[in-house]
Amino acid sequence: MMSRGGPGAMNSQTRSTSFSTSVPQIPNQRARRPSVSSRFSYAVSIAEQGEAQTAQGVAAQHQIEEELAQIKRYEDFTTIDWVQDAAREQLRRKARRKRNAGLWDAGRFDWRHRIRESYDAAQGWIVVTIIGAAIGVNAAFLNIITEWLADIKLGHCKTAFYLNENFCCWGEDNGCDDWQEWTRFSPVNYLIYILYAILFACTSATLVRSYAPYAAGSGISEIKCIIAGFVMKGFLGFWTLVIKSLALPLAIGSGLSVGKEGPSVHYAVCTGNVISRLFAKYRRNASKTREILSACAAAGVAVAFGSPIGGVLFSLEEMSSYFPLKTMWRSYFCALVATAVLSAMNPFRTGQLVMFQVHYDRSWHFFEILFFILLGIFGGLYGAFVMKWNLRVQAFRKKYLTNYAILEATLLAAATAIVCYPNSFLRIDMTESMEILFLECEGAEDYHGLCERDHRFRNVVSLLLATVIRIFFVIISYGCKVPAGIFVPSMAIGASFGRSVGIIVQALHEANPQSPFFAACLPDVPCITPGTYAFLGAAAALSGIMHITVSVVVIMFELTGALTYILPTMIVVGVTKAVSELFGKGGIADRMIWFSGFPFLDNKEDHNLGVPVSHAMIKDVTSIPTHGMTLQQIEALLAKDNYQGFPIVEDEHSKILAGYIGRTELRYAVDRAKRERTLSPQAKCTFAPPPSADITTPGLARMDSFNTIGFAEPSTNASASSSSSSSTSNFINFSRYVDTTPVSAHPRLPLETVMELFRKIGPRVILIEYHGKLMGLVTVKDCLKYQFKVEAMEEDANNGQHSGHGQGNGAEQQSNISNDERLWELMQRVAAWVSDKVSIASGERIRLRDSLDLPRETLAGGAGARVDSGTIRTVRSQGGGREAQILDGTEDEDEDGVELENRQTYPHGSTSR
């Protein structure tokens, strides 16, 4: 059953630059099968042939489709075949139109049916409205809780303990008597601040680890893959929504250098998935669900930034690989409803949707463009630096710290609190810090002398220190096992750097007011507004870390409402984009997709591999002949768990392609046949329609095969069923489960075109055929494997040229591994020393060494006690070798639920190699 054919014998043939879909053949026929434009025509063909089916056959077909959809919904780490999903949706619409036409002709289409049809047509808008309202309510409560948790570390309100500082001192600019610190002794307040940070972080990490591991992190990378068709069971589930909503305020309140904007997208999409599952229309159809998820991503960004249009553009630019006009309207409406509900609840009682929303009434000058360009350069360098080192930290975390998720988050919170408390700009919440840094000095609160001329040098030093310290903690904190985003931390870093630049420019102007450089400034009018530099620095850092442009400009415009600052924002974001592209394409979300090994083809990448698909395809393919295999052989094939699907060929000698059957469909067909009657293990299985079927109508042959021998209809009388069972117990017809028009391509079709097919129409597998003969198959994973292989070879060659030999990249990777092992050894030694001191001080009553599972012998080897989290494969990354592996759909989930290790690498219909 192994086909080892290749394209070597095809040199004399003309290369085909189009793909085709396979049509069934009469047995023993050798002629090349005709082709059609795409498999979407198959859906129409099926619907047209459905008119000739009996009512019983239609009902049975619907039942089988429902049961298969139910099974596939629980298949984890697999990809959705969008072509099959589109075909099923076409069938559903055709059947509904036929049913309505029949009712109309019979005179039974009354007002009840009209209401039902109207409800079905408006169901999408109803669902989007409910989801948007739920997202807005959730966002309002999370804002209120987060602000209270952030303030409770510093003090409390004497009149009402549940009020944060703003509500306690309503109308006051610089605090009030009702809000007081915990004690009058600063070191005790410092200690209380640290203890609260530890408590919040530990609680958040415990909730995530114990109840919903998928609630950790940002979730944007995974949601991009899910919208593209990758199935991750439980990632958008109810418990993930609950734990994300509970643990997110705790993580933000702990002071960790993480934000809530990325997790806002995750809980918004979770909300949409949970609510849409209550409606059968979305429960059955993956493409409909994809529309809802894209709309929810837009609503999540809208409530996070108070920017509904920016949310829609973010979903278009960053999240969705497929974004038709209807999805855009749904996204716009969902973001509108969510933002309106949030505005109605008014969580800050200021009319603002987010705390750092500001308004500028002064314009800018053209000489400031020079400093705006400086901010753009900073944003690009910041993004490249953080992404490179954060991936190194992520690799170290996955390799050594998987079993210490709660301890890691707790220690990070403690370290952050200890280091950040002395700095007045790091001590407060990041959103509050941005609110202060964005404001103009005139008529606004003067936080710690930020607007005073005498304190400029101190403030510049403090802001630059805050920038450096925050960058360090973002690198080591993003990715820990708590709900963690990177939007707001990046904006806070950009704001602190931008404000320091603005203060310096303001000081230069005041020192040289008559300089020609400042000739555009009017006398007796403030010329430089440092708050606008903070605002533009935040935009630069956000664009640099996410590699998004248009949506950042619109988000920033909606935050300020200042039309005059659109041009400076565009300049800053454009410079940031140009600098970022010098260090590689793709933002932090894209890098995390590659790092995690998800099978995702980014539509923003331009591929120029210059090879035919035959270079990337799998040639050793296990296929199933249309006739001759026994039930025992089929079950043995299914028991191996090495295949996601099987090409159907006429016979093993000719390899003439007849169709394709997925593993799920075949498993279901076997189980259904065994339920309906007793079958012999030697029963012959056929995967071809009967010879009398009209080969020009593959849909009819496939649908009518339901009524052939092998499946007894519920409407068949008892005697007929008995006769059929007794006479055909050794024959089973599986032809109705065979996809007779799989997407296929010529072996010489360029690999870039095949990758475009995967992106545009979304098949799970593309079969490679030559003159009707099966030559191999290719999946998204195979394309990515070949792409990474080529890129790794190019990088090795470049490193070899720069270093004078071909081992530059390998030596760098080996050096990184040695450094990681030395760092892990140092961490183990420190942990062992601390645990021993605690044990001695407590009289052996507290033994941290046992709870931390530390080795009792001297830790000389370092790596000897490391956590073995499985083998991973090296894939090229920005700034060195990055460890990853492409998920294939047969992976097992470990006990943590997030780290997807020990992955098998079995392709569709191929053997493990």
Mean of residue pLDDT values: 77
Strand line-up of the largest beta sheet: 2-11-12-13
- SS content category: alpha/beta
Unreliable stretches covering 5 or more consecutive residues: 1-56, 692-728, 856-884, 888-913
User: Between the first and last Cα atoms, what is the distance in angstroms?
Assistant: 16 Å
Mind describing the biggest β-sheet? Answer: 4 strands, mixed
Instruction: Assess the beta-strand content as a share of residues.
Output: 5-15%
* Helix content range: 40-55%
Apparent shape: globular
Radius of gyration: 31 Å
Number of helices, where a helix is a run of at least 4 consecutive DSSP H or I residues: 31
Beta strand count: 15
Structure description:
The protein is of the alpha/beta class. The chain is 54% helix and 6% strand. The chain contains 31 helices and 15 strands. The strands form 6 sheets. It has a 4-stranded mixed beta sheet. The two termini are 16 Å apart.
From the structure above, extract its key features.
about 900 residues; 15 strands; four-stranded mixed beta sheet; globular; alpha/beta
Provide a concise account of the structure shown:
The protein is 54% helix and 6% strand.
Write the layout of secondary structure elements.
Blueprint: E1 2-3, E2 20-21, H1 40-49, H2 55-72, H3 82-105, H4 111-152, E3 155-157, H5 165-168, E4 179-181, H6 186-211, H7 220-228, H8 238-253, H9 261-276, H10 280-284, H11 286-305, H12 308-319, H13 325-345, H14 369-400, H15 405-420, H16 424-427, H17 430-438, H18 456-477, H19 487-511, H20 530-546, H21 550-560, H22 566-581, H23 588-596, E5 621-622, E6 624-625, H24 631-639, E7 645-649, E8 657-662, H25 663-676, E9 684-686, H26 698-704, H27 718-727, E10 731-733, E11 743-745, H28 751-760, E12 766-770, E13 773-778, H29 780-803, H30 808-841, H31 848-851, E14 873-877, E15 880-884
Parallel strand pairs: 6-7, 9-10, 11-12
Antiparallel strand pairs: 1-5, 2-11, 3-4, 7-8, 12-13, 14-15
Helix pairs in contact: 1-3, 1-26, 4-8, 4-9, 4-11, 4-13, 6-8, 6-15, 7-23, 8-9, 9-11, 11-12, 11-13, 12-13, 12-21, 14-18, 14-19, 14-20, 14-22, 14-23, 15-18, 17-19, 18-19, 19-20, 20-22, 21-22
